[in-house]
Amino acid sequence: MTDCIFCKIAAGEIPAQKVYEDEQVVAFKDLSPKAPVHVLIVPKKHVQSVAHFQAEDKELAAHIFVDVVPKLAADLGVAEGGFRIVLNTGDDGGQTVHHLHVHLLGGRKMTWPPG
Ligand code: AMP
Ligand code: ZN
What average pLDDT does the segment 71-98 reach? Predict the structure, then answer.
């Protein structure tokens, strides 16, 4: 989608500190990290949010959660200690970039509830 910052990162048009990439997703360090480990997992296809997933996206959603999240958590050294995944969705959910992204946060003790 034109003018979507995460589409541009996925296309390599603007730089990011990539930690993982395959045919379907890219993962890169958050510009404003909220934990020692803070990466964003982003589908290359523009999907606005989880509220906009379609039936055709089942394989993509499974890929993100079954393949990529556990692999990245292990590679980034937080699988054992624990981590948090966050999908801010819509305005009330605190979503500021309207291209679906999974925050993977770790390396410190998280608190609950979130703000
Ligand atoms: P959200 O508030 O869930 O929509 O999260 C958007 C996240 O994207 C924030 O944590 C930002 O710090 C991060 N962000 C925005 N622009 C960039 C960028 N160019 N590179 C890396 N992270 C970004
Ligand atoms: Zn996009």
Answer: 98
